[in-house]
Amino acid sequence: MTYANVPGGICAPQGFKAAGVKTGIKSQTKEDVAVIYSEKATVAAGMYTLNKMCAAPVVVTKRHLADGFGRAIVINSGCANACTGDQGLKDAIVMAEETANGLGIHPMDVAVASTGVIGTFLPMDKVTSGIRQAVAALSIEGHDTAMRAIMTTDTFVKEISIEFPLGGHVVRMGAMAKGAGMIEPNMATMLGFITTDAAINPAILKKALHAAVERSFNAITVDGDTSTNDMVVVLANGMAGNPLIETEGADYDAFYAALEYACIYLSKLIVRDGEGATKFLEITVQGAKDFADAKIAAKSIANSPLVKTAFFGQDPNWGRIVAAAGYSGAEMEQSNVALWIGGHQIVANGKGTGFTGDALKQVMAVRDIAITLDLGVGAAQATVWTCDFSYEYVKINGEYTT
Amino acid sequence: MTYANVPGGICAPQGFKAAGVKTGIKSQTKEDVAVIYSEKATVAAGMYTLNKMCAAPVVVTKRHLADGFGRAIVINSGCANACTGDQGLKDAIVMAEETANGLGIHPMDVAVASTGVIGTFLPMDKVTSGIRQAVAALSIEGHDTAMRAIMTTDTFVKEISIEFPLGGHVVRMGAMAKGAGMIEPNMATMLGFITTDAAINPAILKKALHAAVERSFNAITVDGDTSTNDMVVVLANGMAGNPLIETEGADYDAFYAALEYACIYLSKLIVRDGEGATKFLEITVQGAKDFADAKIAAKSIANSPLVKTAFFGQDPNWGRIVAAAGYSGAEMEQSNVALWIGGHQIVANGKGTGFTGDALKQVMAVRDIAITLDLGVGAAQATVWTCDFSYEYVKINGEYTT
Predict the structure, then answer these.
(1) CATH 3.10.20.340 segments of chain B
(2) Cα pseudo-dihedral B268, B273, B279, B282, rounded to 10
């Protein structure tokens, strides 16, 4: 399904405003504090990093959105507020309180997100004055400055806004994300914020977000490193007037399809923005026992440095792909394994077809390459997206904080 | 404990001979087929790749050594005999049969190992004539040509031979390994062969090998990729005359200590031979719930491309180390976490100590660096060894087969 694009990013759905301001946390010339706000109360859901060293804002947002309701999001870039102990938790709570005070809402309805260097404390004077400025500057046009405020090493803006029919009404959804393919250390954090004027209850919104993130933000990988600060939050304020989505069914399906579409769209942009990346790889594993197994195998291929450097160098060394699936833990039947690269069959029944060498090198010369591996044991499939490892990757990641 | 070095490599223990010959599988100028032989029957144990796409020789060797007895090992380099289907299995069996015929022993007493490119068939005429030549050339001095025959991108020979007291007798152990830190694609295979004249029963030998490999060959990593062909085999012929080791106790401990010492010695050499590596990193995770958890966390740090590029670039970005432990799945208590790099404490109670920036950069400037992370939940620890990711890594792995 394709969707009608509308302008406005996260402010495209009815009732949402945003703003981003420059406070000097990151530099004097770039926005680094943003506020997103709904004029009516919202249903809210979040998905968070599974990293056990999770940052203070993740702890606070989990707590604040646990009841399934929210109203606003406050975000800073330039400092991750991670590995900051009790002081970090206090600072994240102050961010929520300052935002709530300015908006006249409850602090428990504010989600907090941070991205930047680990192990340093937030400069709270800059953060709080930034929040006050952002609250004062909230507008429908503010999606643009808000988007810029969450960027770190992103080289382009990542946002989308669409509208679609739902229960006889027109529903809008806006979304923005940051992340240069987890390719920039510590700034690696992936943040995603989604707004919608759909009417939906908390439990079913949570279910939809989990499923969509599993097939989008959690299906991209650049180097397998998971940030301390990753977070995706969705706010839904019901202003579109559609009949409340409370169960699975046609309305849920329409909502879910749009949500997945927006999340996959942004996820692919994150991979494309991997600094140093020269290839965009779509890796599909099929013939798997179940979705989880398919995804484990696809991620193992996507994270293999040997596979990633092979694509960078256009080295027709396809054995690395099947070997990476082989050590992934996914079930596979060696004598049934099949592999296609760029539509050409490379392996059939576990043996090379002879399509290799210069012919395969030619196929690997383009930027966008589809890889399909059949594990030969079932009917499930999963797709992940990744990029290659280049000289630039090593350079960028060896020179970051210094 | 330190050990008395003796000459002779894998031929240092009584009763062992070896030879390596040039057959042209790899090139006309390098040895590529080797045979190792014990003049008396040996107890034998093996550990094998867990890769589900395991190569034909792995399948065959598992079967041949399943009874706990062996006598000889035949190895070729230049072709992995992986992803070769039924033909590959037949070829591996012929390698065992040819070796057995030449030596007048049973084919089931021959272990078979291969290393090289995936997806091509063995040139069996060269392999079988090579085996005949190698059998004819067996000698005590042959450890040197045998060692060269298993090398692929190794830039130096990796062997050790030691002697030590055991039950009132002098026991010898020899060992050789190949592997350039799993840094060279498909040639990434790690092979290890250990000989000893100790008298030990099959069950306890297997137990010792498993424990030693877990703390040595399975504790090194360059890029996390596991080969289709990895294998470690030990042969023990009992000619030292020590009382048979049948249970745990002082004799077992002496044997195990020597085995672990030899395995760790070779494992470290493999990491040091990582092409493109500029750093040797010893990563110890302590304060873990159990050994498995400590090792999971240590390997997660060792395999993180962000950590590896940081050490290459001497980037004092310590947040990457704790983040990598955080997403490893190991249990940790954030507020107890401590980190030391090169003996300097970087994190205490989950927070930065302030030792960072230029001071830390200085610590990272040397070649050998010890990293210790305390997870703050228990008393177990594990150590792994790895190297950094450099420009050379990308170059080597992007240009290999072409």
Answers:
(1) 280-398
(2) -10
Q: Quick one: how many helices (H) and strands (E) in chain B?
A: 11, 16
Mean pLDDT (whole number) for A51-74: 95
* Alpha-carbon gap, residue B111 to A335, rounded angstroms: 23
Chain B hits for A402, CB-CB cut-off 8 Å, are 313-316, 361
Chains A, B: CB contacts within 8 A come to 243
Q: Which two tokens stand for residue A160?
A: 């989308």
Give the distance from residue A45's alpha carbon to the nearest chain B alpha carbon, in angstroms.
22
- What's the rounded Cα separation, in Å, for the pair A348 and A364? 19
User: Which of B325, B349, B389 lies at the smallest CB-CB distance from A85?
Assistant: B349
Residue B86 in this model has a pLDDT that exceeds 90: yes
Average pLDDT over every residue of A29-54: 94
- The stretch A364-382 carries a mean pLDDT of 96
Closest in B85, B319, B334 to A186, CB measured? B319
**Closest Cα to residue B232, out of B216, B206, B260, B213?**
B213
pLDDT tens, A161-179?
999 999 999 999 999 999 8
Contact B151, B266 (CB under 8 A): no
B322 neighbourhood in chain A, CB within 8 Å: 53, 83, 118
Label residue B225 by pLDDT band (50, 70, 90). Answer: low
Cβ contacts of A119 on chain B, cutoff 8 Å: 318-319, 347, 351-352, 356
Structure tokens at A361: 């090198």
Give the mean pLDDT of B92-112: 98
B309 to chain A: closest CA residue:
A398
- Topology of B280-398 in CATH? Ubiquitin-like (UB roll) (3.10.20)
SS3 state of residue B8: coil
For residue B2, give Cα distances in angstroms to A206, B5, B215, B320. Answer: 59, 9, 17, 35
Q: Give the whole-angstrom CA distance, residue A291 versus residue B353.
A: 43
Instruction: Give span(s): CATH 3.60.70.12, chain A.
Output: 4-272
CB A153 within 8 A of CB A116: no
Average pLDDT, chain B: 91
Q: Which of A392, A391, A185 is nearest to B310 (CA)?
A: A185
Nearest of B256, A72, B165, A329 to residue A61 by alpha carbon: A72
Instruction: Give pLDDT tens digits for B130-150.
Output: 999 999 999 999 999 999 999
Catalytic residue at A189?
Answer: yes
Active site residue: A49, A84, A189, A196, which one? A189
Pair of tokens at residue B25: 């599988």
Please give the distance of CA B348 from its chain centroid, rounded to a whole number.
Answer: 35
Whether residue A72 contacts residue A30, with contact meaning beta carbons closer than 8 Å, is answered with no
Question: How many angstroms separate the Cα of A214 from the Cα of each of A253, A264, A272, A292, A295?
Answer: 16, 10, 19, 10, 10
Pick from A18-27, A166-175, B67-76, B215-224: least confident: B215-224
Cross-chain CB nearest to A317 (options B185, B319, B331): B185
pLDDT for the residue B365: 92
Q: What CATH class does B4-272 carry?
A: alpha beta
Q: Cα(B359)–Cα(B372) distance, rounded to whole angstroms?
A: 17
